[in-house]
Amino acid sequence: MHTIIEPFRIKSVEPIYFNSKEERIRILEDAFYNPFLIHSNDVLIDLLTDSGTSAMSSNQWGGIMRGDESYAGSPSFFRFQKAVQDITGMPLVIPTHQGRASEKILFSILGGKGKYFISNTFFDTTRTNIEFSGAEAIDLLCEEGKFPSVPAPFKGNLDTELLKQCIIEKGAANIPLCMLTITNNSGGGQPVSMQNIQEVKKICSEYKIPLFIDACRFAENAWFIKIREKGYADTPVPEIVKEIFSYADGCTMSAKKDAFANIGGFLAMHDADLAQL
Ligand SMILES: Cc1ncc(COP(=O)(O)O)c(C=O)c1O
Fold it and tell me: Same domain for 133 and 230?
């Protein structure tokens, strides 16, 4: 038997409220069975999201005390900027309060009526930001990703044949960007293979469409590539991460997932003209 013992201690305890079956029935009825209308205080085990559910490390809590709140030129920002640049290789970094704020900035600039955005699957906040701008969000998930009981290593892949057809049908000029969500959280947190990222990039480049990554679970996706994709077993995860981002023109990030923060996010990119907007 192989036992994995986590190399950390968790030191804080937060009380939670246990409600009765009758109370839970009433809560569900009052919310019209819509989980977005339930108050989180009423939820014992929250399966709606993985957002902000991890414990922060002692260094992260300590970092809050070391944070410099200067009106301008804060060293905390430069530390943050360097970390994002080192991981993504993208020089332009815009901090946001969480993932949906990055999406709001990006799609209110690039979106609008008559525009189309394509993804393996847009997360619900991303789709909402796109549709709010008047544009259309199109999910082109691979076939095996649509069947939860079918085992396959990379069920978050984007269907590249459908991608080509969709670009031809909608017109490349009307598609401001294509986005890969890694991992595909709305599809059960399924990973995307490096091969799929490469193929999507190749098609996007052919049609001069920028490729963005919704990077919430980039580290976990890299781990899946290491253990499931041929040729990566001996590649360290940071190198896999670098390769993933090397195919991207930009990314949005909710730091509440693989960065284990309580709150935070960013938008990063290569294009200085777009960053200026
Ligand atoms: C894939 C993905 N994108 C974007 C978001 C939105 O991030 P946030 O909750 O930080 O606004 C989430 C949140 O769960 C997500 O899972």
Answer: yes
